[in-house]
Specification:
This protein is mainly alpha-helical. Helices cover about 65% and strands about 0% of the residues. The chain is built from five helices and two strands; from the N terminus they run ααααββα. The chain has a two-stranded antiparallel sheet with strand order 1-2.
Length: about 160
């Protein structure tokens, strides 16, 4: 018995499971094995991937092409949401726009004690400074690329007619 899918909807279901597993695994691996500390926006990107994994697993448990397709498409939407958060986070890191969290706010003015108090209230890991890049692309940027591209591929494969 072959584990490889024979139809494009089945391939979409496998990608909908394996892509967020790989991306979430890479994020957790970079944290616990690579020593990177996730910022607030990094954590935001993980939640839709976790939800996509659960939904994709459900797609393996249900019967009926329409139910499977609906769950696979929902997983694709969740993966795309993580990618959209990745775009926002990468844009914050590249200073294309200012982030909306306290971990991107500029230091306040005032007395040295006021500045120290403010610094102690902020997260140590800043959202607007990438901890790691490759070819100028941060982890948030890679998440955006793989998540949005993968979500589009999953959706395309899910709505195609099965190959016999």
């Amino acid at each position: 018995m072959s584990v490889m899918p024979r139809t494009t909807p089945a391939l979409a279901r496998w990608i909908a499971l394996l892509l967020p597993l790989a991306l979430l695994g890479g994020a957790i691996g970079s944290q616990f094995l690579g020593g990177l500390v996730p910022c607030e926006m990094c954590v935001w990107q993980r939640w839709p991937h976790l939800a996509a994994i659960v939904v994709a697993l459900l797609a393996f448990a249900v019967r009926g092409r329409s139910a499977v397709t609906a769950l696979v498409l929902l997983a694709a939407v969740l993966i795309a949401i993580s990618g959209a958060i990745g775009v926002y986070h990468a844009g914050t890191e590249y200073h294309w726009w200012q982030g909306i969290t306290a971990c991107t706010a500029a230091p306040t003015q005032g007395s040295p004690m006021d500045m120290l108090t403010e610094a102690l209230r902020r997260p140590i890991v800043r959202c607007d400074v990438p901890q790691w890049t490759m070819a100028g692309i941060s982890l948030a940027g890679f998440n955006a690329i793989f998540s949005l591209g993968g979500a589009a591929l999953i959706a395309l494969l899910a709505i195609r007619r099965p190959v016999r």
